[in-house]
Specification:
The chain has 455 residues and is an alpha+beta fold. The protein has 15 helices and 18 strands. The strands form 4 sheets. Strands 15-12-14-13-17-18-16 form a 7-stranded antiparallel sheet, with helices on both faces. Bound molecules: flavin-adenine dinucleotide, D-malate and zinc ion. The site of flavin-adenine dinucleotide has 37 residues, from strand 3, helix 5 and strand 10.
Length: 455
């Protein structure tokens, strides 16, 4: 029987999409830089269906591309050509929220926003937040070990993972649910799945460890002379304030784009080359006073400071940072380089990235922003052809020369396969490859992601 007929039998006619118009939104990534035709898109509604799909694809020797919200930024969630896309969006149940333990079990296809909304009434939060919250799924976030704006407080997704259920390429099910905060029973397979980018198994359920919700928050945006001043101010605030939730950097060029494309107003009249956004939280009372005191100790122009403690005001300030991704996308198809360096080299990276790019492509334009508290910078490049890798190589070369990592939070996907080897070296990549071969000997799961197809 042809594979598509077998898939139709498993998920039903409605959830096996072979028509090109129906497949289209699953075939191109969020940036529009990566796309490819799928043999079919399947939308299973149960773990049994996931297992049956994997067995059918393995029998047919056809690759499977797991896809959640398709907000990934390294091309790992869309087909390269001829694979089956397995969408997890129907696996979206949220169940078993334990208000005393602060834990919840969610289907891989549940969006971050849905889980945030489910946790809040019980006084809990997910502890991870990112701009794609309405579409990004918990399964995709585990698969990419997503970071976001609260990593400096609660760590990346791997640290939120208590238990999991996943299906391997041969259809066998791995299950450790609910999962315990203390669990030393051999290898940490859930931890291994975090960051595996769909190359080892399809994650179907996750037990999350939540964090207590904060009653009060305050946000400030401070205008500064350059990235070095942002790094210095971030460090001083970190020492002065106990409950920093986020420390984010953006530049005036990026803010200009956000103001243009997202209709957000400037935080203050006096524009500056670089900005630091800081958020603090408190259970006890308004953290605004402590933040204002800490800001006074910084050598900043009072005309270049905006602060808010109310929901609307905080949201307005956050928009200036959070909407960079869509503002950059509105300008063109970006090359997105998500990197991290030791904090002592961060300002140097911000300053040197544009000239490294200009040296190889004079027509390209660089917009940088990121999670300065984690040493994580997002270098977005506009105006360079999607297939031209020279700008990517120039930035990643610079990052390695500064002692950094070529991927901080978005992953390797198909975008940085060669650079995984450059960054981690042949022995480490061979060890990773051995894990891949043991879990998925036929190479069915997300071929071309992390490792080159012919390696
Ligand atoms: P997808 O894009 O669908 O997939 C991502 C990868 O995971 C692919 O390799 C896919 O094959 C694999 N995968 C998906 N689901 C599963 C599953 N159930 N089992 C196995 N493999 C699976 N990322 C950050 O880290 N921090 C940010 O601050 C951040 N902000 C963003 C803001 C915007 C506006 C956008 C568009 C993206 C942002 N991202 C950020 C990137 C993206 O949201 C994250 O990578 C997110 O984790 C992807 O989730 P997803 O459900 O969309 O996964
Ligand atoms: C962010 O922090 O805004 C994201 O990770 C997405 C991006 O790089 O644009
Ligand atoms: Zn980010």
């Amino acid at each position: 029987m042809p594979l598509t007929d077998a898939l139709r039998e498993i998920v039903g006619e409605r959830h096996c999409l072979t028509d090109p118009t129906m497949r289209a939104s699953y075939e191109t990534d969020w940036t529009r830089r990566f796309s490819g035709p799928a043999l079919a898109v399947v939308r299973p509604g149960s773990i049994e269906e996931v297992a049956a799909i994997l067995r059918a694809c393995a029998d047919a020797g056809v690759g499977v591309v797991p896809q959640g919200g398709n907000t990934g930024l390294v091309g790992g969630s869309v087909p390269r050509g001829g694979e089956v896309v397995l969408s997890t969006l129907r696996l979206n149940e949220i169940e078993g929220l334990d208000p005393d333990a602060g834990e919840v079990t969610v289907g891989a296809g549940a969006t971050l926003a849905a889980v945030q909304a489910a946790a809040r009434p019980s006084g809990w939060e997910v502890g991870i937040d990112l701009g794609a919250r309405d579409s990004a799924t918990i399964g995709g976030m585990v698969a990419t070990n997503a970071g976001g704006v609260n990593v400096l407080r609660h760590g990346p997704m791997r640290q939120r993972l208590l238990g999991f259920e996943a299906v391997r390429a041969d259809g066998s099910v791995l299950r450790r649910l609910p999962g315990m905060p203390k669990d030393n029973t051999g290898y940490d397979l859930g931890g291994l799945l975090a960051g595996s980018e769909g190359t080892l198994a399809i994650i179907t359920q996750i037990r999350l460890r939540l964090v207590t919700a904060l009653g009060h928050r305050a946000v400030a945006v401070i205008g500064l002379d350059d990235a070095g001043a942002v790094v210095a101010a971030a460090g001083r605030l970190r020492r002065a304030l106990g409950t920093i939730q986020a420390l984010e950097l953006f530049t005036d060029e990026g803010m200009e784009l956000v103001m243009r494309h997202a209709a957000v107003a400037a935080p203050f009249a006096s524009r500056r080359p670089a900005y630091l956004l800081v958020e603090v939280g408190s259970d006890a009372g308004d953290p605004g006073e402590g933040l204002a005191d800490a800001l006074m100790t910084l050598d900043v122009d009072p005309e270049a400071v905006a602060m808010a403690t109310d929901v609307a005001g905080r949201h307005r300030l956050w928009q200036l940072r959070e909407r960079h991704t869509e503002a950059v996308n509105a300008e063109g198809v970006p090359h997105k380089l998500d990197v991290s360096v030791p904090i002592g080299r961060y300002a140097e990276l911000v300053e040197r990235a544009p000239s490294a790019v200009a040296d190889v492509d004079g027509g390209a334009r660089t917009i940088s922003y990121g999670h300065v508290g984690d040493g994580n910078l997002h270098v977005s490049i506009l105006g360079s052809s999607p297939d031209d890798h020279r700008v990517d190589d120039a930035v990643l070369e610079l990052v390695l020369s500064l002692g950094g990592s070529v991927s901080a939070e978005h992953g390797i996907g198909v975008a940085k396969v060669d650079w995984l080897l450059r960054d981690r070296g042949p022995a480490t990549v061979a060890a990773m490859r051995a894990i891949k071969d043991a879990w998925d000997p036929a190479g069915i799961l997300n071929p071309g992601v992390l490792f080159a197809r012919d390696s």
